[in-house]
Amino acid sequence: MSTWRYLLSLQMSPQNLSFSDSLHIVILASVLSLIIYWLIRDHHRVRDWSEKYVFITGCDTRLGNALAKWLDKRGFCVIAACATEEEGQELLSCSSLSLKTVNLDLADSSSISRAVVFVTEETAGKGLFGLVNTAEGTTPAAPIDWLRIDDFHSVLDINLLGLIEITLRLLPLLKKAEGRVVNLINAKGFMAFVGGGYNLSKWGMESFSDILRRDIQHFGVKVSIVEHSFFNAKVNSSIMERDLRRLWNRLPNDIRDSYGEKYFSEYRKAQRSSVKRLCNSDISKVIKCMEHALLAKYPRTRYGAGWDAKFFWLFLYYAPSCLSDMLFHMMFPAPAASGSSVPGVLINI
């Protein structure tokens, strides 16, 4: 028995391990150490929430409204920006006295200036710990030759240029508090499949967020992106259909004839179906991501909220163009002038 124990100990001794075995052990130990370190680091939280100010745009939206209420309950000093005074009053009625509201139209520079002055006075020299951009305009979305330049401005002025302007105006306050910027971006920013300014604005915000993060990290300001799924399917679908019909009715006869009434009918069905299939009703996933981005001592650069944000759009982004093009051709009909029949393969799924 003693002989077997000796042989076993000899085989397990470090001297008998090959170089490749030793290398594998070192790599495995290093990977495990990094995972443990990341998990510990990821759970560190900031302190003294009641003394920190957070400004949230788009509090008239479902996500912005929910985040403002949640941070208010957590003890943050919340400044909520709403599109109208009525929406601000409604938010005040179900919040604590420490929550403040301000009217904000991101397409109007004077409105942005007034909001910045309000935030500066409210923070009273303490700086701004958090800027959360949740405001967005979503429509119109339609085939590209149905649109005019004003249709692009109506979305880009809010989703991109307005958010960039207010972020730049608030940077001095963010630097003073060594705060963080959290930009809420729909995962459609990965892949453009319908015409209009919405996808352009999301691509632009992804780019702006990356540049901003690298440029201001030296001042202790952190920038995070929360890429999320569709929400509010009923509201989105009704608004999109309303604008789609408006665009169709204003088209010149030659363009309308080239598409055909059947195309318009099937396109509406495809648009409604795609929004319904990809929509997620559980906004708590997004709230948790925004919570971590604000409360974590070391927030992540990107968060994915929802299955399509983590898998579907990411897969299409890296997939060959021929594959993604084929999928979208299956989802949407073909114009009458193309000579192809209306596919509609996935329309009724």
User: Strand-residue fraction?
Assistant: 5-15%
Amount of helix: 55-70%
Gyration radius from CA atoms, angstroms? 25 Å
Count of DSSP H/I helices: 13
- Tell me the overall shape: globular
Q: Tell me which oligomeric state these chains represent.
A: single chain
SS elements, strand count:
7
Biggest β-sheet description: 7 strands, parallel
What is the ordering of alpha helices and beta strands?
Answer: HHEHEHEHEHEHEHHHHEHH
Rounded mean pLDDT score: 82
Class from helix and strand fractions: alpha/beta
Cα end-to-end separation? 69 Å
Low-confidence stretches: 344-349
In spatial order, strands of the major sheet run: 3-2-1-4-5-6-7
Could you describe the 3D structure shown?
By secondary structure, the chain is an alpha/beta fold. It has 13 helices and 7 strands. The chain has a 7-stranded parallel β-sheet, sandwiched between helices. Helix 4 (85-93) links the parallel strand 2 and strand 3 (100-103). It is globular and about 60 Å long. The relative contact order is 0.10.
Give a nutshell description of this structure.
This protein is of the alpha/beta class and 349 residues long. The chain contains 13 helices and seven strands.
